[in-house]
Amino acid sequence: MALRDAVLSGIGGLEGVYAFSVKHLGKGEAASVNGEEVLPTASVFKVPLVVELYRQVERGEVSLDERYVLRDADKVPGSGILRELSEGLELTLSDLTTLMMIVSDNTATDVILGLVGVERVNSAMRGLGLEKTVVSASCRDIIFDGVGGSDLPDEERTLARYEGLAAEARRRGGFTAKTRNNVSTADEMTGLLGLIAEGRAAGRGSCDAIMGLMAKCQTGEARIAKYLPRDMVRVCHKEGTRLRLRNDVGIVTLLGSGERWALSCFTNEVGDVNAAEEAIAGVSRNVYDYFTAWA
Fold it and tell me: What is the pTM of this model?
């Protein structure tokens, strides 16, 4: 069986838009299905963001020890815990980065995005050869678009206003599926993961720190990691979730041999999000079986 066949077999009859890309980071064997298609990232965009953050830390432009005082105005709906905590809480930039990567905290993400700068992230991606990976929206932008609040001024896009708009959207029959989003391709994201694993997306220490954060990710466990033997692999990943979208991208390392591969899984406009997660899990297991059969 060829590697691409292993990927296709895992996808099965998934209905919707999808793209999968995998590359063995030692042997170089790669395969993709729709790997060049530009698709929404959802929270997967936090990987390019954390890369540029660490590049700025290396240049001395920001410090992970820098402190930030949480404001009610910072709080963003959706994933995370900061929206539930008290105004005035003091966190380091390191704390915010940890929350962004391991629990996908949207408030922490938007604070970091504001400090790092959207254009700086995009410029960094161009410099790394990622031409189709574009960050254009904050978590707040994406979430308020989904409930019809895209035209509200920033000061009115509060948690309370979101709850009202969300209740109204439910009465209308559902949220808006088509919103602003950040985009990438499965092939480009696999390329970025490879650069991180090889210590070339930023300095070696920074890339190791990024992988350490991704290894602690607490979301998306029913995707890349689901069917992998936990005592035999290390999974460093970041998922993305929206209404009809389930994504997951990661680096899988065999603990015994140190062999590793990058895998990027994007699904969008799927009729069954559980089926999308199962397809990601199935592709991941098939890729594992394929590469470990070499041993």
Answer: 0.96
